[in-house]
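Q: What does the assembled structure look like for these inputs?
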Amino acid sequence: MTSAAPAILAQGLTKRFHDFTAVDHLDLTIDKGEVVGFIGPNGAGKSTAIRMLCGLLRPSEGHASVAGFDVGRQPEAVREHIGYMSQKFSLYGDLTVRENLRFFGGIYRVPRRDIGEQMAFAISMAGLEGREDALVRTLAGGWKQRLALGCAILHRPPVLFLDEPTSGVEPEARRRFWDLIHEMAAGGVTTLVSTHYMDEAEYCNRIALIDRGKLIAIGSPRELRGRQLGGELYEIGCAPLGAALNALTGAPGVVEAAIFGDKLHVVLGAGGLGAADLPDFLGARGIHADPAHRVTPSLEDVFVQLVSGDREERVVS
Amino acid sequence: MNVRRLFALAFKETLQVWRDPRSLAIALLMPLMQMALLGYGVSLDIKHVPLCIYDQENSQESHAVVEHFVSSSWFSISRTLDRQADLRNAIDRGECSAAIVIPVDFSRALATTGTASIQAIFDATDVNTTNIALGYAQGTIAQANAQIAAQWAAAHGVRPSLVGRVDLEPSTWFNETLDSRNFIIPGVVAVILALVGAQLTSLTISREWERGTMEQLISTPVTALEVMLGKLIPYFVIGLVDAGFCLAGAVFWFGVPFRGNVGTLFVTTVLFLIVVLGIGYLISVRIRSQLGASQIALLVTLLPTTLLSGYTFPIDQMPAPIRALSLVVYPRYYVTILRAIFLKGSSLADLWTPLLGLTAYALIIIWLAARAFRKRLD
Amino acid sequence: MTEESGQVAVRARGLSKNFGPVPAVRSVDFSISPGEIFGLVGPDGAGKTTIMRMLAGVLRPDAGDIAVDGVDVTADPEQAKLRLSYMPQRFGLYEDLTVAENIFFYGELFAVPRSERIARSRELLEAAGLLAFQRRLAGQLSGGMKQKLGLICALIHTPRVLLLDEPTTGVDPVSRRDFWAILYNLRESGVAIVLSTAYMDEAERCSRLALLHAGEIRHCDTPARLKEAMPGALLAITSAHPRSLRETLAGQPGVLGILLMGDRVHVRVDDPARRIPELRALLTELGVEEADIARAEPGIEDVFVALLGQGEAA
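A:
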């Protein structure tokens, strides 16, 4: 993409707590203006990785640089050049919008001459004009979220870290929030988002799937979905579901079959049953089935397929 | 009430107490530590008051008086002084709490006028010690006086018994301080049980709210009564064990005489535990944060118990309104009962007044506790 | 008091709850049949947890009534609790007890006969992949394992109704799969499951959904029918520069809404047959390379936004 230095660079980044490895040799290159998502379940190591990148935790091994500063040797400089928005947006409910902004402005040491302008920008970005003196706890979730974002960028950082930024927020508000992120990205701000919501990944240019401290895949949402599940994914409505599942599991060409809602999701590989064959195959066994149609695999499907290989180890450990 | 559920609740609670270092520490270590601290540390006895002697005359008569002080077990002579200046220093530096100054003309005054004065100086920054030391000093002088009278009688051929003499024997006061440990330790046991019991149970309900397990528990068919009993039973057992430790410690370690019978002790202890655990439970139900509950438990038990239960300060010395207030301080009843059982060997029948108080308390607490817990979030 | 159970496992009528002046739940009605997985979907603050708590009998409604398996929850909560199981949003089991001890406790609370408890617990532990962890303290399990344990304890006494408040939030996808496999199995035995979630993709797995907003149910139907009810059709246009693409398409005739995603744009159009060629022509004309236009299956989130529109209250 660009030949400039990456905004975020991690090489072999590792963190161990006693004998537990929270982050395992993470390699990552994020260019300026990209919006990248760290997606993975709770406990996967996302927060730990982000803390290292923010200069809050010293890596056990490997190194990383953010906005050109080394996180191990120049953590203070790193912190001055990043914005951080945490889960459930840590704003002070008993202070007003303006007071919160001023507080964070002070924390980030935004110069006096700039603070007025910055605050105005944050307020307009959040759509809170006219409500500067409202107590934050009276605001609805979506507003608080955007205000928290505003507080995080008062000092115009080139890199932004967001930790579960839209947890529990309304879909409409979530979309507006992501619009803001993309707008800032167009202006050159690099964003790294950490979330356990698989569907939030859709808003990112690229996604890094993290599980148990390791980066298991990285790519655009489309690329990841296009990954071979070992076949193509079809959805087929049929009844009774249990019998249909039994019939298809292990049938020729069926890589995987699982119940999904009131339907079956079936992955068909090469050389075996085709999508068109399914209704007859099931019908012959006394199971009524509608025609199957292709569906795009969800990121969760991709994730499960990528990790289920070491599922046995997971259970035993 | 379903016994199976009750058992399940009690079993769970037991497992949790067993695995919680904080609860175990409160249950087992705290009473032992308190017994040791209060049993050894608190004593109204004031013996071996450090005394300085400044004998300006150094005559046979003055030495005779000094000898009374030297041989008294209430005083211990820390210094013999030669100069006035040393006297002030010695007291300032705390080398002695009191000083006896015998004037230069002591024996001459005694011989000519029949009266001689000795000065006793006290470091009264500690008023308690001063008061008591003053008493000791007067007693010692009284003894010295008795001896002087006897010597006079002998010197004049009068039988000493014919010389009328009023022996001021402040022995009641003094005996009390000699027995202070016997007096205090039954009170200590009551205080410990009150504190520990309330601390233990004050956390139990609030902990479940804080951890989020209560929300799920109340969605099951358990009844409030089952929850209460299920939680209190393990603590009751712990309480009995603690009471056993403390009472046994009192008798076998501190040597407090036990003149009553074990059965009476058991019955009254059970009643007291019910009250104590019930109060902690009530606090726990009302206050949903563990920290808050344990602080309130401390507040409600510590000060009233130490000040108003008769444990250290006699209740009948208090002004009437405070005396009335002490009726509500439940350890008061148990302290009275314990002392009576230990020192006087009282039976249940003898104790019916404080027993009535304690029983009434227990019933009220049970009633309040059973009603207090609601299976609802709001 | 006890009505004929018939075909209704859970019924709520006019259910309302206020917290002080704030109406958290406003006159909610719904009816759930045995074997259904009913989803309450909505963001934080929509009232999901409040509704679940009222169904479980741990919170008293200000108005309305609830019947669970024929029993009036408000009038006789303890009877109702015998027939239901509730898993609150926050892990509600004892972290200082082992997996086996927790299961034993809940078994005893519901008077499950010992042999039955042992058999069922084994079966459920196996399905959840927790058989090897019986002696482990619940506090030492991962998030996903904790939720599965919660489900096991909820099912140890074969309830007729299962209430799950955001059961898979933050759980790893593999555990979530196991979790849902257990839920699907339950359906066969006629258990009614009420599930609340803020995850739109999880909502897809339910038989019927209630879209909740600010304490009200705005729409209630199967996922398929909700998608049909969504006005317009959804197109996905992939591009290397989705942002500029969005700017280009905004205001084009027939475009009802545009959503910017990471590597594409979701466009809602009124008439796909007509608009697809139009848009394709437009993009070619503008020289936009690699733009791929295809029909997209709307997700529940798309449906939510479309149906609930400008739902943000100030």
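The radius of gyration of chain C is 23 Å.
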